[in-house]
Amino acid sequence: MSRRGVISAGFFILGLVLFGYLLLSFGIDTILRNASSAGSGLGAAILVWFTIYLLNTASWKLVLGPAGDGISFRKLFLITVSGFVINSITPVVGLGGEPYKVQALSPALGAHRAISAVVLYRMIHLLGHMLLLLAGIVGAAFLLPLTPATAAALALAGTLIAAVIILTLRGTRHGVFDAIAGVVRRYRVLSFIPVDRYREQLEAMDDVLTDVYRNDRRRFRLSVLVEFVTRLLMAVEVWIVLAALGVAASPAQAIFIYVAFSIAINLMFFIPMGAGTQEGGILLGMQSLSLDPALALSVGVLLRIREFTWIGVGLLFILVTGREKPSRAAPGAGS
Predict the structure, then answer these.
(1) CA–CA separation, 113 and 111 (whole Å)
(2) Can you give the pLDDT at residue 222?
């Protein structure tokens, strides 16, 4: 087996072990019982996420432009799903899948371009997410009856989200690798890191990272818009699940509930799959809207079942990408 195949097998085994642990912790009986009661609503939620992953892949392909010519949409789709799956089950600030994405892209793009491609998409993905959360907070302030405490908490969250958006935009405009090298040079305790030896490579990686913002602003905006739409679809999933449980929620209420548990998950980013925090966020969101809080657990369970389904699919995709013959690296790709 090739070195690349061994690495993919390692990611698969790690993911399978964590997946098995999560399934047993959640309870197979609980999964089967709730899946049966949800009926077609659960199937619809799973299909919504197929659309989300397709759009995620389209956004990534779009923002890469010519730099991504060395990889097909199909291959990028497999990597996208697998990477998000690893992110969801590893307690590494939701970034556990990024090394996997880099090694999966490296044969086609070269190592340096692969790193830039992964960082760039992560920033686009973050922008789409933060913009939806900010829009949801603003919409809730005008459209929904909120308690003073809820309104104050949302105002604080909105301020932090706006700061994240500004910093992320700065990174897409000026790059991040040279800035990291500057931090290393500034502090003696980090002097063992040989950043000056790789100055040219770091500059080249920043060039890939900032190219779309500097040279094709329309493509940049469109990729962020696609990511924004994927977040709206996540709120649609909440609306579908609520309907399957007999709750006649409005689209605005579904978006608010999504925003509530998404903020909770991001605050507790170090917990795998947002265990407990997602359910707590759903509970707070439903309570704030005077919806039956007793249904919050059922909503959370159905979202988990959909997540478990796609984790299983993503793990299979890791095996598929590991067995495929690598494409030829794009011309000029770094090693």
Answers:
(1) 6
(2) 96
pLDDT-derived band at 4, boundaries 50, 70, 90:
low
Residue 334 has pLDDT above 50, yes or no: no
C-alpha span between 162 and 64 (Å, rounded): 25
User: What pLDDT, on the 0 to 100 scale, is given for residue 276?
Assistant: 59
Residue 138, number of CB atoms within 10 A of its CB: 12
What is the Rg, in whole angstroms, of the alpha carbon atoms belonging to the chain?
21
**Torsion angle (degrees, nearest 10) of CA 285, 266, 311, 80:** 120
pLDDT for residue 3 is more than 70: no
- pLDDT of 111 above 50: yes
Residue 298 tokens, joined = 């059922």
CA nearest 204: which of 175, 170, 182? 175
Place of tokens 């067995």: 323
Distance CA 130, CA 157 (A): 11
Residue at 329 is within a domain: no
Query: Worst-scoring range by mean pLDDT, 123-132, 291-300, 313-322?
Result: 291-300
Per the structure, the complete domain to which residue 64 belongs is given by: 3-323
The contacts of residue 9 (CB under 8 Å, 6+ apart) are: 1, 319, 322
Asked if residue 89 is part of any domain, the answer here is yes
HSE of 191, CA atoms in CB hemisphere, 13 A: 4
Count of domains observed in the chain: 1
Beta strands in the chain (DSSP E): none
Give the rounded percent of residues in the chain with a pLDDT score beyond 90.
Answer: 26
Residue 332 in domain: no
- What is the distance between the alpha carbons of residues 4 and 124, in angstroms, rounded to a whole number? 27
Q: Which region holds residue 331: left if phi is over 0, alpha if psi is between -120 and 50, else beta?
A: beta
Q: Look up residue 282 and give its two tokens.
A: 């759903």
Chain segment 7-27, per-residue pLDDT in tens: 656 666 765 666 666 666 666
Name the residue among 43, 58, 102 with its Cα closest to residue 230. Answer: 58
Distances (CA, A) of 290 to 138, 145, 147, 283: 19, 10, 11, 10
Does the residue 146 lie in any domain? yes
